[in-house]
Structures are given as C-alpha cells and as structure tokens.
Amino acid sequence: MLARCPGSAETNVEQDINNLKVKWDSVQTKLSERKAKLEEALNLAMEFHNSLQDFINWLTQAEQTLNVASRPSLILDTVLFQIDEHKVCEETDV
C-alpha cells in the first residue's frame, strides 16, 4: 500500500500508522489498568459481603438469644447467673 503512495503521502500514511499504534497501545494499557481495578473492587466487594453476612448471622443469633431470655429475677443467685449469661452474650465477637 505504501509503495503506491507518492513520497509525502507515504510519510503521512506512516505517521497515521504510528499514531494508530500509539493510540492502540494506550487503549490496551488503560484496559489492563481498568481490569486490575475491577478485580480489586470485586475482591473488596466479596470481602464486605462476607463480613456483612457474618454480622447478620451474629445479629440473628443475638436476637434469638435475647428473645428466649427469661425476665430479670429478684432472687440474688438467679440475677447473678443472668448477669453472667448476659456478659457471655456481650463478649461474643462479630
């Protein structure tokens, strides 16, 4: 194709081809960077989702525990036992 072009046109075609190569390389670089960022975002989103699911499970269990808990007693030994049970519930990590 370049052989059929006059001298100045050949130079213009070569410049155009070089410009296209530079733009193509730029597009490929940007695509690679975007892919890396999307993969990182996916990992963060999955980690957040898993943490959220763990929290929801803990919260559900805590609600169930509190729903079946007996009313506070007026008997000292029972109250002390209930306080200990409550402390165990509070200390459970999410």
Tell me what the structure shows:
This protein is mainly alpha-helical. The protein has helices spanning 7-68, 76-91. It is rod-shaped. The termini are far apart.
Total strands: 0
* Structural class assignment: mainly alpha
Poorly predicted ranges (pLDDT <50, ≥5 residues)? none
Q: Give the overall shape, derived from the CA principal axes.
A: rod-shaped
The chain-level mean pLDDT equals 88
Gyration radius, in Å: 34 Å
Distance between the termini: 69 Å
The H-and-E topology, N to C, reads as: HH
**Count of structural domains:** 1
GO cellular component, one term: cytoplasm
Protein name: Acyl-CoA thioesterase II
GO molecular function: microtubule binding; structural molecule activity
Organism: Platysternon megacephalum
List the helices and strands and how they pair.
Elements: H1 7-68, H2 76-91
GO molecular function: microtubule binding; structural molecule activity
Protein name: Acyl-CoA thioesterase II
GO biological process, one term: hemidesmosome assembly
